[in-house]
Amino acid sequence: MANPLIWGVESWGPALVARWKTIVDNQKASMKAFDFDKLPSAIKEVPTALSMISEPVELSYSEGDFCQAVWKGRTQFYLSLNQNLASYNYVYPFYRKITEAAAGKLTLGGKVELFTIGQISPALLTWGSETEYMGLVVPWTITEDISGKLTVGV
Question: Domains of the chain (ranges plus CATH)?
Fold first, then answer.
């Protein structure tokens, strides 16, 4: 059983990764997505999604009152091994598929108060020293109620 006092990436990270794993491309290949503590050293296949925290966490807490954490991160979707124009035909449906996956669980199964994504941007992505992949970058925000999970004292 999960520890109810755990909060942050340890609590909601697996649920976020699970959302991305629901994405299937038009050739029926499932999205590979990695837990925050198991990021690969190399991208071996596409489609692959890697999520990371990209900004400082905003914490709000006080004794006997509401406590909250706001996490800002991004997921990089590695979608094509080449950069020819025909690859765009493969990439375009992912705008819809990513939006549907995110909108399908706004609370990540009750783990957070709210999970939203920002503007989806096309990008040439690298991971380590590999060649560039055609992909999409999706910023996201997670608002988490940490009341009762954080000991606040004076």
Answer: 9-145 (3.30.70.1700)
Bin 99: left if φ > 0, else alpha if -120 < ψ < 50, else beta: alpha
121-125 and 133-145 strand pairing: antiparallel
DSSP code for 57: -
Contact assessment for residue 112 and residue 143, using Cβ atoms and an 8 Å cutoff: yes
Between CA 117 and CA 132 the distance in angstroms is 24
Report if pTM > 0.85: yes
Q: How many CA atoms lie within 13 A of 61 on its CB side?
A: 19
Separation of first and last alpha carbons in the chain: 32
At residue 85 the predicted structure's pLDDT band, cuts being 50, 70 and 90, is confident
